[in-house]
């Protein structure tokens, strides 16, 4: 292969895959390769695939086939990531034009293949980061030891591996110096952080949060995603409430609201405990915003069990809740389970869930009308009358998964402004930018 100079990288799947791609991009650019938006101009085309569920595999395969079909002489096509970790040989056999196949966590090998001297590059192979506007994802761990019967992640990514605290602290500082205003902590299960380093169950994350809070400084938000229900401990809740820069937001994927289904999923199934920690979270942080996600149509789910899920979601009133239809996944415990639910039933149940949740989310969002919130500006533009408008997120919205806040007024992307909330829909908030008048403690609108 001639020395490659330009690369085109396609990333499919979840934010964690984006973080992995950012890691690869850092390695390649450290080796002086230049990214190009047009695959036709690249010497090397790399696809970071997703193998989470059937739809994502199909999407990854479609992208690979398209790139393979358009490949020109001299180009090298590399396919890596979760899907090839599972089905590498098959993918290669089925798609002529693929030159190399890698699994997950083999970014150094990909870079070496492209003649990058990886040993000469400053790298953070374990923590990995991705900067997205004023926010940066900080992956604190990878892999998972949980036995969830619907999930293929442990098979793809392997067991839990926590990034060392010192490395994460250094990385947090570097990101803040580079302009990040928010660090979003991710991992398959962030609350398991440290267990593989010998820390007692659930005890690592509160300590890590303290270190990162100090390293990031008071002006940087820290946001916690993907908490595991049985690891939302009083210590974690107390730490979140105490640290001023940890936003009052928690994403806890709960997967179901029926104990029988949770048992079959091999998930924590004591719903009393779940109600209790939600109550504790709300007592410690009355303004906390809760996000969760559920699965409709898990094998054997009866109508009565699904109604338990609806009742549970009504009782808790999550601010944001997503619902996926169950996707049958090879190499998981649920794959061979009896009572696979027909697709139409799954879709109908999901639609019913979403209809109920939209009303709940709208009610929860309406609580913010009349309040003034800090907003991190992500973009600016004009409304239909040509007046300036900005869009961004407050502590209530995580990047990419939740809604946005739209406010009349002027501000620059990356700036932190205060927004008086005037209206709300089920996903978004609407208002106007206000600024503190120095020394008077009053606010004035900077635009009509
Ligand atoms: S905790 Fe999350 S990543 Fe781990 S097995 Fe369960 S669903 Fe999969």
Automatic annotation (TrEMBL):
<dbReference type="InterPro" id="IPR038135">
    <property type="entry name" value="Methylthiotransferase_N_sf"/>
</dbReference>
<dbReference type="GO" id="GO:0051539">
    <property type="term" value="F:4 iron, 4 sulfur cluster binding"/>
</dbReference>
<protein>
    <recommendedName>
        <fullName>Ribosomal protein uS12 methylthiotransferase RimO</fullName>
        <ecNumber>2.8.4.4</ecNumber>
    </recommendedName>
</protein>
<dbReference type="GO" id="GO:0103039">
    <property type="term" value="F:protein methylthiotransferase activity"/>
</dbReference>
<keyword id="KW-0808">Transferase</keyword>
<keyword id="KW-0687">Ribonucleoprotein</keyword>
<feature type="binding site">
    <location>
        <position position="14"/>
    </location>
    <ligand>
        <name>[4Fe-4S] cluster 1</name>
    </ligand>
</feature>
<feature type="domain" description="MTTase N-terminal">
    <location>
        <begin position="5"/>
        <end position="119"/>
    </location>
</feature>
<dbReference type="InterPro" id="IPR013848">
    <property type="entry name" value="Methylthiotransferase_N"/>
</dbReference>
<dbReference type="GO" id="GO:0005840">
    <property type="term" value="C:ribosome"/>
</dbReference>
<feature type="binding site">
    <location>
        <position position="151"/>
    </location>
    <ligand>
        <name>[4Fe-4S] cluster 2</name>
    </ligand>
</feature>
<dbReference type="InterPro" id="IPR007197">
    <property type="entry name" value="rSAM"/>
</dbReference>
<dbReference type="Pfam" id="PF00919">
    <property type="entry name" value="UPF0004"/>
</dbReference>
<dbReference type="InterPro" id="IPR002792">
    <property type="entry name" value="TRAM_dom"/>
</dbReference>
<dbReference type="InterPro" id="IPR012340">
    <property type="entry name" value="NA-bd_OB-fold"/>
</dbReference>
<feature type="binding site">
    <location>
        <position position="144"/>
    </location>
    <ligand>
        <name>[4Fe-4S] cluster 2</name>
    </ligand>
</feature>
<keyword id="KW-0479">Metal-binding</keyword>
<dbReference type="InterPro" id="IPR006638">
    <property type="entry name" value="Elp3/MiaA/NifB-like_rSAM"/>
</dbReference>
<feature type="binding site">
    <location>
        <position position="50"/>
    </location>
    <ligand>
        <name>[4Fe-4S] cluster 1</name>
    </ligand>
</feature>
<keyword id="KW-0949">S-adenosyl-L-methionine</keyword>
<comment type="similarity">
    <text>Belongs to the methylthiotransferase family. RimO subfamily.</text>
</comment>
<feature type="domain" description="Radical SAM core">
    <location>
        <begin position="130"/>
        <end position="363"/>
    </location>
</feature>
<keyword id="KW-0004">4Fe-4S</keyword>
<dbReference type="Pfam" id="PF18693">
    <property type="entry name" value="TRAM_2"/>
</dbReference>
<dbReference type="InterPro" id="IPR005840">
    <property type="entry name" value="Ribosomal_uS12_MeSTrfase_RimO"/>
</dbReference>
<dbReference type="InterPro" id="IPR005839">
    <property type="entry name" value="Methylthiotransferase"/>
</dbReference>
<dbReference type="InterPro" id="IPR020612">
    <property type="entry name" value="Methylthiotransferase_CS"/>
</dbReference>
<feature type="binding site">
    <location>
        <position position="82"/>
    </location>
    <ligand>
        <name>[4Fe-4S] cluster 1</name>
    </ligand>
</feature>
<dbReference type="GO" id="GO:0035600">
    <property type="term" value="P:tRNA methylthiolation"/>
</dbReference>
<feature type="domain" description="TRAM">
    <location>
        <begin position="366"/>
        <end position="435"/>
    </location>
</feature>
<dbReference type="InterPro" id="IPR058240">
    <property type="entry name" value="rSAM_sf"/>
</dbReference>
<feature type="binding site">
    <location>
        <position position="148"/>
    </location>
    <ligand>
        <name>[4Fe-4S] cluster 2</name>
    </ligand>
</feature>
<keyword id="KW-0963">Cytoplasm</keyword>
<dbReference type="GO" id="GO:0035599">
    <property type="term" value="F:aspartic acid methylthiotransferase activity"/>
</dbReference>
<keyword id="KW-0408">Iron</keyword>
<keyword id="KW-0689">Ribosomal protein</keyword>
<dbReference type="InterPro" id="IPR023404">
    <property type="entry name" value="rSAM_horseshoe"/>
</dbReference>
<dbReference type="GO" id="GO:0005829">
    <property type="term" value="C:cytosol"/>
</dbReference>
<dbReference type="Pfam" id="PF04055">
    <property type="entry name" value="Radical_SAM"/>
</dbReference>
<comment type="function">
    <text>Catalyzes the methylthiolation of an aspartic acid residue of ribosomal protein uS12.</text>
</comment>
<keyword id="KW-0411">Iron-sulfur</keyword>
<dbReference type="GO" id="GO:0046872">
    <property type="term" value="F:metal ion binding"/>
</dbReference>
